[in-house]
Each structure stands twice: as structure tokens, then as C-alpha cells.
From TrEMBL:
<dbReference type="InterPro" id="IPR010154">
    <property type="entry name" value="CRISPR-assoc_Cas7/Cst2/DevR"/>
</dbReference>
<keyword id="KW-0051">Antiviral defense</keyword>
<dbReference type="Pfam" id="PF01905">
    <property type="entry name" value="DevR"/>
</dbReference>
<protein>
    <recommendedName>
        <fullName>Type I-B CRISPR-associated protein Cas7/Cst2/DevR</fullName>
    </recommendedName>
</protein>
<dbReference type="InterPro" id="IPR013414">
    <property type="entry name" value="Cas7/Cst2/DevR_sub_I-B/Tneap"/>
</dbReference>
<dbReference type="GO" id="GO:0051607">
    <property type="term" value="P:defense response to virus"/>
</dbReference>
<comment type="function">
    <text>CRISPR (clustered regularly interspaced short palindromic repeat) is an adaptive immune system that provides protection against mobile genetic elements (viruses, transposable elements and conjugative plasmids). CRISPR clusters contain spacers, sequences complementary to antecedent mobile elements, and target invading nucleic acids. CRISPR clusters are transcribed and processed into CRISPR RNA (crRNA).</text>
</comment>
Length: 299
């Protein structure tokens, strides 16, 4: 089986997608800062993984506590196998048993954080439970404060296609492998979920479906467009992308999709990059995945 990697970088628009540790009555967004002085909210890769697994219906892999006393950690049960549970096939595992060395499977599917492409400006939402408080008498109605930020976000997903459905021991020997058609089906299911991904948070359902996507199946396992999607006042910088397309492997294998009318410079994006619609991009990417595993099965 040829060593190939799938990578897809996407932009979506959402509001206040991930909160961290708060203090008092203040709920704090997860944020990072850059050298330009800007502060950017982000949705962690763990949060994205949770939503993907949940919407795939793969969140049924058995877990158990490992360790002793109050130092136990939750891990996947040692008896679980990748043939039975797609979650640990694609997202990896660590399993330990008392008195034995742990075994682990590095993730086949990797996610980056979804980082805002527009700076955070310290906006706050003041919340009360007035509707319920008015139903009772002499009830204390405290005020809660929540940081809010609406922005475009960008993240990248990468998949080692040759490692899907194949487990190995510490020496590298293959201990388990599933049929190629099941490998393809798992990757296809993942892509279909990412295409229409959403996130439930604070009583809202945020749409994480991409408005712009770029990627493909490549000979190198490089996340080519991670960190290369830049916005200037809601306009995508196409010059960076055109520079990336000068590489032969990238140019030959890259697919570009656009939801027209969302980004301010959609006309320029279509002129510079000749994108297809988002649905066509995912259909083409799915065909590439199926072709890869069909070809591998013949070798």
C-alpha cells in the first residue's frame, strides 16, 4: 500500500465555540495571543474530536479506570480492538494494565485547533435568569457574564490513509487489519460528518460546516494549508494559496471548494483559484479515497 496522506484545511463561521476555566460568575473563552498583539479565540482539537465522534455515533468504545487509588486515569479498555471500534482506529489509543507496560496507537486522524481569523475585542454578554426569577418570590437573581466572539475560524484535518484499519505491536508487526472496503467506508463517513459538522454549546447549535475548503490526497503527508488561510477584513488572501500551488504535488492533487457569497472577495477567489462548490469538493475527495483503497486492494 502506497504511503499517502489526506489533508483538508477549512474555514467556517461561528460564535463563541469553546469556553475554558472561568472565575466567579465570568465564563471565559479559550484564547491565544500572537506577536502582532492580537488575541484570538479558538475551539480546541479535543472539542472538535468530541463533536465528530459524537455525530458519527462512534462514542461507544468501552473505557475503564487505570492505576490505583486516587491516581486513576480513564483509558480505553485493553480488550478493545480497532476492528470493532472505529474511534480507536482513527483517533488512536493508550492502554495500560497493572504490572505491564502500556501500549499505544498514534492517531491516524489528526486535528488542529480551530483558531479565529479575526481578533477578539473583549466583548461580553450579561446573562440573567429573569424569566424564572419572576415566577417566584424573594429569589436572588445573580448576573452572569460570558465572553463572546463571532468570527471565521480555520482548522486542518490530516489522515494517514495507509495506516487506517491496521494495528501493529511495539516491534512494528501487524497484529490486526480490516478489509480495504471498511477502511474506505470509515474515512468516507468521517469526511461526510466534517462536511456538515455542528457544535452544541450554551443552548446554541453552531454550524461548523466549511464555507471554504482546500486539500486533497498527496504523496507527502504534509498539512500544506495549515496556517496558510489568512483573512483581511473578511477577504481571503489568495496570493498565499497561489504560492503554495507552485509545488507540483500540491498543484496536481489539490481540490478547492467555496460556498459563494460568504467571504467578501468571493469573486476574486473564483477568478484566482477556480473553486468548485463545497459539495462537489467533498464528493471528489470521497472518490479519491475510494480509488486509493480500491487500488491498494489490487496490489
Amino acid at each position: 500500500m502506497k504511503s499517502k496522506g489526506l489533508t483538508l484545511s477549512m474555514i467556517f463561521e461561528a460564535q463563541s465555540g469553546n469556553y475554558g476555566e472561568g472565575f466567579g460568575n465570568i465564563q471565559v473563552l479559550k484564547k491565544i495571543s500572537r506577536g502582532d498583539g492580537g488575541v484570538y479565540s479558538y475551539i480546541s482539537r479535543q472539542a472538535l474530536r468530541y463533536n465528530i465522534i459524537n455525530q458519527l455515533g462512534w462514542d461507544n468504545t468501552p473505557v475503564e479506570g487505570s492505576g490505583s487509588g486516587d491516581k486513576k486515569v480513564v483509558q480505553f479498555a485493553p480488550s478493545t480492538r480497532i476492528s470493532d471500534y472505529p474511534e480507536i482506529d482513527l483517533f488512536g489509543y493508550m492502554k495500560t494494565e497493572e504490572g505491564e507496560y502500556g501500549i499505544n496507537r498514534p492517531a491516524v486522524v489528526r486535528l488542529s485547533h480551530a483558531i479565529a481569523l479575526e481578533t477578539y475585542h473583549a466583548e461580553m454578554d450579561y446573562l440573567t435568569n429573569m424569566g424564572l426569577a419572576l415566577r417566584g418570590k424573594n429569589l436572588v437573581n445573580s448576573i452572569s457574564q460570558s465572553e463572546i466572539h463571532k468570527s471565521f475560524y480555520a482548522y486542518t484535518i490530516t489522515i494517514d490513509l495507509d495506516r487506517v484499519g491496521k494495528d501493529t505491536d511495539q516491534a512494528g508487526g501487524v497484529t490486526e487489519e480490516i478489509p480495504d472496503e471498511i477502511k474506505a467506508a470509515r474515512v468516507v463517513d468521517l469526511l461526510k460528518t466534517v462536511q456538515f459538522l455542528y457544535r452544541d454549546i450554551k443552548g446554541r447549535r453552531e454550524n461548523l460546516a466549511p464555507v471554504f475548503a482546500i486539500g486533497g490526497v498527496y504523496n507527502r503527508k504534509n498539512p500544506y494549508f495549515e496556517g496558510r488561510l489568512k483573512l483581511n477584513k473578511c477577504s481571503l488572501d489568495t496570493d498565499i494559496i497561489k504560492e503554495m500551488l507552485k509545488d507540483e504535488d500540491v498543484k496536481e492533487n489539490t481540490l478547492i471548494g467555496l460556498l459563494d457569497g460568504i467571504l467578501d472577495n468571493s469573486v476574486k477567489i473564483k477568478a484566482d483559484l477556480a473553486p468548485v462548490d463545497i459539495n462537489s469538493l467533498f464528493n471528489a475527495l470521497i472518490k479519491k479515497v475510494e480509488a486509493y483503497y480500491n487500488e491498494s486492494g489490487k496490489n
